[in-house]
Amino acid sequence: MAEIPSICQRWITVYSTSWCGQSRRAKALLTSHGLLFEDIDIDRDPSAARQVENWNQGYRSVPTLDIRMILIQPTLADLQSILLVPGVQIADLTIYTDAQSPLSPHVASWFADYEIDYVKIQVEKDAEAAHQVRAWNKGTLALPALDVRFHLTEPVSEELERALGLTQ
User: Fold this and answer.
1) How many angstroms from the chain centroid is the CA of residue 110?
2) Is the N or C terminus of the chain more exposed, i.e. has fewer CB atoms within 10 Å?
3) Whole-prediction pTM
4) Is-contact 151 67, C-beta < 8 A?
5) β-pair partners for 14
6) DSSP-assigned states of every residue in 41-94
7) Is the Cα torsion angle 22, 25, 27, 29 positive or negative in sign?
């Protein structure tokens, strides 16, 4: 299956340990797809260990991935494929839109149907937001644009590939 084309940027942080086989497999999968990521060993970084515990109800579960992605004009199938992966915990979601975008109401309705909270920014009222969307999309103001950050803990390879939009 092909990578989801609406993804234009990804930032990935892997919270792991050196002794965890599942952490090594997750990092190997990211590397095999040519994805850059920051690796933080929670055995060596107490503040990172506390963050992982905070995200995982007190458990030091690894790997835990903190993922931020920018999606430009995603389809509802794209959203379902990425955000409904078991274990995905959405931390922040911002939808950039305007009154002219025919896709925006469908995307907003999809989030409402799944009871996913989001912040909506109207780019025609916010020049800085419009500039940011253009920067993400190589000069084009294509909407809706989504800035989503989520966590994924102990994913199997298929879940990680779906959550990263590497397969549809």
Assistant:
1) 17
2) N
3) 0.94
4) yes
5) 39, 65
6) ETTT-HHHHHHHHHHTTT---SSEEEEEEEEES--HHHHHHHHTSTT-EEEEEE
7) negative
CB 10 within 8 A of CB 68: yes
What's the token pair of residue 29?
Answer: 């999968």
Task: Convert the pLDDT of each residue in 75-126 to its tens digit.
Answer: 999 999 999 999 999 999 999 999 899 999 999 999 999 999 999 999 999 9
3-state helix vs strand vs coil in the chain, percent to 5: 35, 25, 40
Domain residue spans of the chain: 7-163
55 and 151 Cβ atoms separated by less than 8 Å: yes
Whether the predicted pLDDT of 4 surpasses 90: no
SS3 119: strand
CATH superfamily of 7-163: Glutaredoxin (3.40.30.10)
